[in-house]
Amino acid sequence: MDDYMERGIKEIISERPEIEAILEDYDIGCGPCTVGQCLLKDIMEVHAIPPEEELEMIRRIHQVIDPDSPFKANKIRKKKSTQKVVIFSPPMQKLVDEHKFIKRLVAHIPHIITSMDLGTEEGRQRVLDGIDFIRNYADRYHHAKEEDLLFKYFDEDLDIIQAMYEDHKNARNHVKNIVMGIETRNWDNVITNLSAYQELLTDHIRKEDDILYPWMDRSITTAQVGTLFSAFNEVDQRFGDAPTRYEKFVNELERDYQSNEE
Question: Which residue in 50, 55, 47 sits closest to 76, CA to CA?
Answer without folding.
Answer: 55
